[in-house]
């Protein structure tokens, strides 16, 4: 198996394509959206429904940009936390018997 960095470099890493939320509310909301979409497809004119789909596509694009920014911010926060922990090794808990830091 390739390392994560090799897979990322080769374009083989797509975590966003495999995310399936485990929150039960996700599936409930997804079903509601499907039901409403079908209702509007039947009730609206073709032109009005196309406009609704365009609006929906814009909302999805906007949300995707927000999720991307949140991912980047969270990743940087996690990396900074690791950096902080590793840079302060002297503050780590020490073994009471030996006085040696526990890494």
UniProtKB/TrEMBL annotation:
Pfam families: DUF6809
Name the record gives this protein: Uncharacterized protein
Source species of the chain: Cohnella hashimotonis
């Amino acid at each position: 198996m390739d390392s994560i960095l090799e897979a990322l470099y080769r374009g083989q890493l797509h975590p966003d394509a495999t995310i399936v939320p485990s929150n039960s509310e996700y599936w409930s909301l997804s079903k509601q959206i499907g039901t409403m979409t079908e209702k509007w497809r039947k009730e609206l004119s073709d032109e009005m429904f196309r406009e609704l789909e365009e609006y929906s596509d814009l909302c999805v694009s906007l949300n995707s940009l927000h999720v991307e920014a949140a991912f980047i911010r969270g990743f940087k926060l996690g990396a900074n936390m690791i950096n902080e922990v590793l840079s302060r090794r002297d503050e780590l808990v020490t073994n009471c018997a030996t006085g040696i830091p526990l890494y």
